[in-house]
Amino acid sequence: xxxxxxxxxxxxxxxxxxxxxxxxxxxxxxxxxxxxxxxxxxxxxxxxxxxxxxxxxxxxxxxxxxxxxxxxxxxxxxxxxxxxxxxxxxxxxxxxxxxxxxxxxxxxxxxxxxxxxxxxxxxxxxxxxxxxxxxxxxxxxxxxxxxxxxxxxxxxxxxxxxxxxxxxxxxxxxxxxxxxxxxxxxxxxxxxxxxxxxxxxxxxxxxxxxxxxxxxxxxxxxxxxxxxxxxxxxxxxxxxxxxxxxxxxxxxxxxxxxxxxxxxxxxxxxxxxxxxxxxxxxxxxxxxxxxxxxxxxxxxxxxxxxxxxxxxxxxxxxxx
Length: 320
Ligand SMILES: Cc1cc2nc3c(=O)[nH]c(=O)nc-3n(C[C@H](O)[C@H](O)[C@H](O)COP(=O)(O)O)c2cc1C
Hints:
Layout: E1 3-8, H1 15-29, E2 33-37, H2 52-59, H3 72-81, E3 84-90, H4 98-107, H5 113-125, E4 143-150, H6 161-165, H7 167-172, E5 175-183, H8 195-216, H9 220-223, E6 242-244, E7 250-253, E8 259-265, E9 268-272, H10 275-279, H11 285-301, H12 308-312
Parallel strand pairs: 1-2, 1-3, 3-4, 4-5
Antiparallel strand pairs: 6-7, 7-8, 8-9
The chain binds flavin mononucleotide.
């Protein structure tokens, strides 16, 4: 029996809540233990930007503990306990909700798989053990699925939601196996009146349970296999949201940060990503490590600004 956690950022018992609960219901029927949490009803303080968590991990002072004392640890514990994590958010202004982003910032560097893996290695070399090492549960294979719910009649106004929701999974190393956007939610009073959307959630449950089977069998190739509805143009995240370089045919996946080329063949686009780019996607370990090293080296070699306090003085009271 595996553990499935759902985090809903929607209104209580509205579309997002019930769609995620449908996935949980099916997983429960499949013999799995399920848990449902609503971060909006918890005390999750915004990140202050102090970077104590990053410095804590990199310096070995601690394992990336946050300065805030709030309910975050409840989500962290449930997240680490889970083998599959479902996240669902309404679309607010084309993106997920503010609470969702707040949680991402809190999970960010302090729960980044590369930061934690390197920290564990260093601490073990120093002979440390037990509580001096990062939480062992951070390293177990974990799969995720993403749900976005938009009220607008077209998909057009939902564009940043699923891509931004990858944020919670990219640092934590969760392998995304399915995503779905339900748009046009305002056309019907409640998703319980839209059978095809509820059926899509049953399919999401099947996909999650299939991936959980692969975790049980330790079948590494099968665990993270994409089970979503469309292949997408990016071969790693299977989404199709790119930064387009205006003066070349290069495109950069907004989620993975990898570069490829777009070519037109008989008027149809073909996206080609070299193997070395695919390997450095931030959804994969090598991409996370590249970022971890860039931050670690940057912190060591940061250029100091002379007389900074003096230089700041003219700005101190502007606009007050
Ligand atoms: C502040 C706000 C902004 C919204 N912006 C969008 C939007 O950009 N695109 C969209 O499709 N729906 C938008 N909506 C509609 C919600 O996505 C929609 O009501 C959704 O069903 C809410 O999910 P819930 O029923 O699970 O709470 C917005 C709603 C609110 C309250």
